[in-house]
Amino acid sequence: MVNLAEVESRTEKLAAGATKSTSADMKGRIVEYAWWLKKQGYAETTIIVYTNAVEVLAKRGTNIFDPESVKDTLARQEWGEARKNVAVTSYTLFLAMLGMTWEQPIHRKPVRKLPFIPTESEIDQLIAGCGKKTSAFLQLLKETAMRGGEANRLEWSDVDFTRRTITLNYPEKGGNPRIFKISQKLINMLNSLPKNDRKVFGNVLHWHQATFRKSRKRIAEKLQNQRILNIHFHTLRHWKATMLYHQTRDILYVKEFLGHKKIEDTLLYVQISEVIFKETTDEFTVKVATKPEEIKALLEVGFEYVCEKDGLMFFRKRK
User: Fold this and answer.
1) pLDDT band at residue 172 under the 50/70/90 scheme
2) Do 154 and 200 form a contact (C-beta atoms < 8 A)?
3) Residue 164 Ramachandran class (φ > 0 left, ψ -120 to 50 alpha, else beta)
4) Which pLDDT band holds residue 282 (cuts at 50, 70, 90)?
5) How far apart are CA 192 and CA 197, in angstroms?
6) 65 phi and psi, to 5 degrees?
7) Which helix (H) or strand (E) holds 181?
8) Which residue, 172, 155, 192, is CA-closest to 258?
């Protein structure tokens, strides 16, 4: 039978044995690890996640040059399977950079959970309460369903202010390039940002994340709505995909909008949409249009074309 007291004692000794120079070595190696991941072709968001995972291990008294020390630390954490899996994967890559291997601790593959889907009003409240740059970043994610890393790489040359379009030429995770029609609201928000950098939002994604987390906490407390704390950058991608399927019932369209290579990755939103809108009645607001500007106005606010009769075009939108 394992004596947990002995395990605790061993871990404390390992932590105490880490000298100041070892601590400095670890910090230097973690910086080197981030650059190594970049050279291997990992996405910026993935680099941040993996680097942070190794940093957390080091901060918890682990000698990250000793796989047994890492195992001791992991055994003491009350983490979910998903977080454990990230920690093991990131440390395995860290060892690969050092030319080392280890016998990975047993961990179950995390089960994919259904994502949290906020209401549109909660998203809009969050956007309205953030600073100028963060608000524009969130509005972009809301309208285009870009991943955070994709939006962070956006350059001013990708934005067509005249046609109100944004082109995504460097998608993450092997996705397809895409072009989006965006709202005048987003155009105005982007226009208000300083243009002293090639990139629209700068170069540091984790800065956006830190600023966003502070704003999110403040807004959740002000509105007394803890659900807002569950909104992350990627949440807006899930929200947009769910809304698109609900509005169009066209899974292939949603797949292309998200840039997915496999439709299996998109089918998740069929299930979410059916559950969220299960209680929704099939009542519609119906509008008639005859002029191009009327048609354009209806489409911009979510109406869908139904049919044409006697020179009139009929549109509808769920109540």
Assistant:
1) confident
2) yes
3) left
4) low
5) 14
6) -90, -5
7) strand 178-181
8) 172
Q: How far apart are CA 313 and CA 319, in angstroms?
A: 19
Where are the alpha helices (H) located in the chain, listed in sequence order? 4-16, 20-39, 44-59, 67-76, 81-98, 120-129, 132-144, 148-152, 184-191, 205-223, 233-248, 251-258, 268-276, 292-300
169/147 Cα distance (integer angstroms): 13
Q: How far apart are CA 111 and CA 240, in angstroms?
A: 23
Between the two ends of the chain, the Cα-to-Cα distance in Å is: 63
**Cα–Cα separations (whole angstroms), residue 44 to 51, 125, 172:** 10, 28, 9
The residue with greater pLDDT, 319 or 124, is: 124
Q: What was the pLDDT predicted at 287?
A: 86
Task: Report the pLDDT value the prediction gives residue 1, as an integer from 0 to 100.
Answer: 40
pLDDT average, residue stretch 172-185: 90
Contact between 242 and 117 under an 8 Å Cβ cutoff? The reply is yes
Reading the block at residue 204, the tokens are: 């540091």
Integer Cα distance of 83 and 91 in angstroms: 12
Least confident of 91-100, 168-177, 181-190, 221-230: 168-177
Going along the chain from its start, the domains and CATH numbers come out as: 4-98 (1.10.150), 120-276 (1.10.443.10), 284-318 (no CATH)
Residues 6+ away with beta carbon under 8 Å from 301: 317
